[in-house]
Design a protein that fits this description.
The complex is a heterodimer. By secondary structure, chain A is of the alpha/beta class. Chain A is 23% helix and 38% strand. The longest helix of chain A has 17 residues. Chain B contains 11 helices and 24 strands. Chain B starts with 26 loop residues before the first strand and ends in a 5-residue tail after the last helix. Chain B is of the alpha/beta class. The chains are: A alpha/beta, B alpha/beta. At the A-B interface, strand 19 and strand 20 of A face strand 23 and strand 24 of B.
């Protein structure tokens, strides 16, 4: 079993029933540390055992996977761990452009079709023990950082199929480790560009912070409009130490032709402060499944999301605020606007375990419908098993305010511009909670160009 | 076929509270469900051929549908152990005097005679599977109101019956609606004529008394154009050692400009599975109000619905649930906006105590074209113990952009400040707790007829006894 290649071949051969599987064949080509390969093999077994979720399950009732055929996608070659590190000037034009304005970031990585072409970490931070490297390299050089963390998330049964596929087909991933007491002053920013259709891109992020550490992580998903479909799978596992402050932001602005599935597990220790923001603007179908585990007393989790759907885009958001410890606080605010024939789903759950007394948990989903044929479904759920709690949720679906539209139009704006401005204002309630100004502006620009402002 | 089998044969004497009367059913189907049982029920009721066909079709649908896996736990519900039909009497009773003493005795214990004396105008009291007592106030008869048992409704008003039966809840709606459609027995047939305004509520009391006996009442109410009426259904049943099962279907048609209110206070014994489908079709400018109180049963799954199919229709659901040890109240409401300018409101209040669990489950659906629709849903849950549980599962599906939809829910415990204040005014902690709980349900209780509100308050007080400390 020392030889990883052999292990992979064995895995492929024992998989009767998937003969001719392109994805199974992919597993045989791999040369990587045995521990990673073993994980892939187990995940692949789970993947082949599990049925694809159907609309009969509550979790997938509003999102149809029947036309999702992972076998029709060729996985991108996995990263080697030995990265190229080109200067910004040597990058492909689109990647170089993305790097503009990112000079001040504490760390940056650019991945194109899964391969890292550029990676930079502030040397002062590296000296203080910060690690920012691809998963495969960390598996070789610092395996203790992955142990009992990588792929350990308690993924819900109805997400396990895609999670298993994600793990088995991993293209590459990034590990960020911030030791105790280290404050990363500027955001760590990862750009993930995909330029080819008919492919499967699977990326993973493992964020580990020590006690009292502080960091802001930003990841962006981009592609041109693709003629043939891209399947994008992404996973996030965040382990925040006691007293740490971690901000996580994901900006998904793929072109058309992309189906994106993201599973995010955030674990908060004692007195940890987490905040996460998911912005979905691109792709044909995007589904985020986000879980905040409040495992430490006194922890806080802020969960934010924004989306703007047009054409026939379909966005599906699943959230879980899991209060396992007393005295914790969570606040969710998900806001979306839809036009044309776009659809969105929000399904959120606050679960308060028995014994998680003095919980404060809130959940709000607001939807703006801008056209005749768009659809919004919202399911804000509560399951409360402790009695000394304050929990509330709210959901609304409505239009832009006619009075406000009238006011703006009386000032000479066209109806369309006025409406767009109001949508922008609708999103601002979330954007103003983004702690880093540079990131906030980048999000505003992305949203502005999406809604046509 | 066990003709004339008595309750003694069922071993009810072992019933620990001895709250059993010795009734003598004339006919009892055998346990479990089969085509034969359905044919027997239909034959026994001397039904027209179309109804037998309908029942048999529904039975097939029932058999083809899987047991629901959402909501409450149905794994211990064994439908093979249930009697699908029992008839205690051969004929309808026209007045109280004619009701057999044994049955009266049961009602006496439930306090029904008092209700009778005070406001009861027309009574369809269902004892076991059928109406045994049925009276109708004279002036209503003069107004043309029909308030009959469902069986008599079918016989006496065959055309009106057939025109509306199963139009609101077809058998294929859900597994238990299909079951009810196959084996229904008992319930009311109500017709309120055009323009009639009925001030005193129509009341029906339901009571299940034979162990392992299913009760499948079916009620159809037609509120014709411009009419106004209020129907009250209350249930209570003594406790048995094995599970009991109740699965009713209530269909209401509220025609143009009519107003109708349907009130249920369900206080089944804590071994009852109560799986009920209640739905109203609400036409142009009409108003439907469901007032749904769930206090008893082991598991209740009930979501009164308003289908707002006429322009300007209004639907309202007021739901109150009280779950104490071993109980799961999975209740709520559904509003479906099909026509323009329809409005709806769901207000739900739940209280969980001990190991009780109350779940709000609701649907707000707005179809494309229902322009200018508005809906508001509010759920408040109160938790009294650290072992109690509450859930909220609203479904909000909006296909029309010119609609305004809101949903809000809160969960809280009885505030220590509230208790402290009341106790500083000289109330004992228990009294203070009861007062806070009463205040919590007040918005719904005040919509109840007085004697129901009093009953509800008395019940809350009883339940609060010993809840502190």
């Amino acid at each position: 079993m020392a030889d990883g290649v052999t292990t992979a071949r064995e895995a492929g051969e024992t998989e009767a029933g998937v003969a001719g599987s392109r994805l199974a064949a992919f597993l045989e080509t791999l040369d990587e540390p045995a521990t990673l390969l073993e994980r892939r093999r187990r995940a692949w077994e789970r993947y082949t055992e599990l049925p694809m979720p159907t609309r009969k399950s509550e979790e997938w009732r509003y999102t149809d996977l029947s036309r999702l055929d992972p076998e029709s996608h060729v996985p991108f070659a996995p990263e080697s761990g030995e990265e190229e590190n080109r200067d910004a000037g040597d990058l492909p034009e689109q990647a170089a452009r993305l790097l503009e304005g990112m000079e001040a970031r504490s760390a940056v990585a650019v991945r194109v079709d899964g391969r890292t072409l550029h990676r930079r970490l502030d040397p002062a931070l590296a000296e203080r023990g910060v690690v920012f490297a691809p998963i495969r390299r960390v598996a070789r050089e610092r395996p203790e950082l992955l142990a009992e963390r990588l792929y350990t998330s308690d993924v819900s049964p109805m997400e396990e199929k895609l999670w298993s596929l994600h793990v088995a087909m991993l293209t590459g991933g990034d590990v960020l480790y911030v030791p105790d007491g280290v404050r990363v002053p500027e955001p760590v920013h990862v750009l993930r560009w995909a330029g080819e259709g008919d492919r499967l891109l699977s990326t993973h992020t493992l964020l580990v912070t020590g006690r009292e550490a502080e960091v802001t992580w930003v990841e962006e998903y981009l592609s041109p409009d693709l003629e043939s479909p891209l399947l994008s799978l992404s996973g996030l596992e965040l382990f925040a130490g006691d007293g740490a402050t971690v901000h996580y932001l994901s900006l998904q602005r793929y072109g058309r032709g992309v189906k994106h599935f993201s599973i995010q597990h955030l674990l908060a220790g004692r007195d940890t402060r987490l905040s996460g923001l998911n912005v979905n603007l691109g792709g044909d179908l995007a589904r985020d499944d986000v879980t905040s585990h409040l495992e430490g007393p006194g922890s806080e989790s802020e969960m934010l999301a924004l989306w703007f759907g047009d054409g026939t885009q379909h966005f599906d958001h699943h959230t879980l605020q899991h209060h396992a410890a007393p005295h914790a606080y969570s606040d969710l605010l998900y806001k979306g606007a839809l036009t044309d024939s776009a659809r969105s789903v929000f399904r959120g759950l606050i679960r308060v375990d028995r014994g998680a007394q003095l919980t404060d948990a809130y959940q709000t989903n607001r939807n703006l419908l801008l056209s005749k044929h768009c659809h919004a479904t919202t399911l804000p759920n509560l399951e409360i098993e402790a009695d000394d709690v304050r929990c509330s949720h709210g959901a609304t679906v409505g239009q832009v305010d006619e009075g406000m539209l009238f006011y703006l139009m009386s000032r000479g704006l066209t109806r369309l511009t006025a409406e767009r401005l109001l949508v922008f204002g609708f999103f601002d309630e979330v954007l103003e909670r983004v702690p880093v100004e540079g990131v906030r502006e980048r999000l505003r620009d992305a949203i502005g160009s999406k809604i046509g402002l | 076929m066990p003709h004339n089998e008595t309750v003694e044969g069922l071993g009810l004497d072992e019933y620990k509270y001895h709250f059993v009367t010795r009734d003598k059913p004339v006919f009892k189907s055998r346990k479990g469900l089969s085509e034969e049982v359905v044919r027997q029920i239909s034959a026994h009721k001397e039904e027209p051929e179309w109804m037998l066909d309908f029942r048999l079709r529904a039975l097939k649908i029932f058999e083809s549908k899987p047991m629901p896996t959402w909501g409450g736990d149905l794994s211990t519900l064994d439908l093979d152990q249930i009697y699908f039909y029992i008839r205690p009497q051969d004929r309808m009773q026209r007045s109280w005097d004619e009701v057999p003493d044994e049955i009266k005795d049961t009602f006496e214990r439930l306090g029904i005679p008092e209700a009778e004396r005070s406001v009861l105008a027309g009574v369809g009291a269902q004892y076991e599977s059928e109406m045994v007592y049925h009276s109708l106030r004279e002036e209503w008869e003069n107004q043309g109101v029909v308030f009959e048992s469902i069986e008599d409704g079918l016989k006496m008003y065959p055309d009106l019956f057939r025109e509306h039966f199963a139009t609101v809840i077809p058998p294929a709606d859900n597994k238990f609606a299909a079951l009810n459609s196959a084996v229904w027995s008992g319930g009311s047939f109500v017709y309120i004529p055009k323009g009639a305004k009925i001030d005193i509520p129509l009341q029906a009391y339901f009571r299940v008394n034979a162990e392992r006996m299913g009760q499948f009442e079916r009620t159809i109410i037609i509120a014709d154009e411009g009419s106004e009426a209020h129907y009250i259904e209350g249930c209570t049943a003594p406790q048995y050692s094995t599970e009991s099962f109740h699965s009713g279907v209530i269909e209401i048609i509220v025609k143009r400009n009519a107003r109708f209110r349907y009130t249920t206070i369900q206080n089944w014994s804590n071994n009852m599975y109560n799986l009920v489908t209640q739905r109203a079709m609400v036409h142009e400018s009409a108003t439907m109000e469901w007032l749904d109180g769930n206090l008893g049963s082991k598991l209740t799954m009930k979501y009164p619905s308003c289908f707002l199919v006429g322009e300007g229709a209004h639907g309202e659901v007021l739901s109150i649930a009280y779950a104490t040890d071993g109980q799961h109240q999975d209740t709520g409401g559904k509003v479906v906006h099909v026509a323009p300018h329809t409005t709806s409101r769901i207000t739900s209040k739940s209280i969980s105590k001990g190991t009780g669990r109350s779940s709000y489950r609701g649907l707000c659906k707005v179809y494309e074209g229902a322009v200018g629709s508005r809906s508001n849903v509010e759920c408040d849950a109160l938790l009294l113990d650290e072992t109690s549980r509450t859930d909220t599962y609203p479904y909000i599906e909006i296909d029309e952009n010119e609609a305004t939809i809101g949903h809000e829910a809160t969960v809280s415990k009885v505030g220590e400040e509230q208790l402290f204040y009341l106790m500083s005014r000289g109330l004992a902690e228990e009294e203070a707790m009861a007062m806070v709980v009463r205040g919590f349900i007040e918005p719904i209780a005040k919509k109840l007829p007085l004697e129901f509100a009093i009953e509800l308050n008395r019940l809350i007080e009883l339940e609060m006894e010993g809840s502190v400390g």
